[in-house]
Amino acid sequence: MDAGKVIIFTGTGKGKSSAALGLALRQAAKGRQVIFIQFLKSGEIAESELFKRLEPQIRFFRFEKSERAFEEMSDEERREETENLRNGLHFAKKVLDTAECDILVMDEVLGLIDNHIITLEELSGILARRGDTRVIITGVSMSSDYCSIADEISEITTFEK
Question: Which residues neighbour 84 within 8 Å (Cβ) at sequence distance 6 or greater?
């Protein structure tokens, strides 16, 4: 495993979170400590409950309170949810500052940039704290700017016949 490496799974296709989870499972099977934080995963409570069964090998966290999509919320609900999501980011910083795990997955964190909750510079600042912790991040949108923060980018697309 490459310590301190940043891997991004992005694209419009399904499977970004699954790819991140697959890497996390392989590393947990090797005895490495994994923390998996989900952002903007509205309505996927059943998936969250399944992930919780992987503990303690993979510790799972979700800071969202609403099951509704961020885009469907009122302005007030968005403000409240933004605070919850920022709490998740503060937790990620703490995890990296304390080297609490070998692998940190920040699932759908790129969606925070798309929704103007954080900037790429803020995410870059968080990633700068990683030391030897390998970080896996996911999100739908792809920007050439992501090349500045990633060691490896995989784009997942769906091709229909």
Answer: 63, 64, 65
Q: Distance (Å, rounded) from C-alpha 141 to C-alpha 139? A: 6
CA dihedral (48, 46, 14, 55) in degrees, to 10, reads 30
Domain CATH number, residue 44? 3.40.50.300
Q: Is residue 97 part of a domain?
A: yes
Inter-residue contact 74 to 128 (CB < 8 Å): no
Interatomic CA distance for residues 45 and 120, integer angstroms: 28
pLDDT tens by residue, 117-155: 999 999 999 999 999 999 999 998 877 788 888 999 999
**Which of these, 128, 82, 81, 88, lies nearest to 107 by C-alpha position?**
88
- What distances in angstroms separate CA 14 from CA 9, 127, 145, one per listed residue? 11, 25, 22
88 within some domain: yes
This prediction has a pTM of: 0.88
Let me know if residue 1 belongs to a domain: no
> Is position 161 within any domain?
no
> What distance, in Å, lies between the first and last C-alpha atoms of the chain?
37
Number of domains forming the structure of the chain: 1
Domain limits for position 83: 6-155
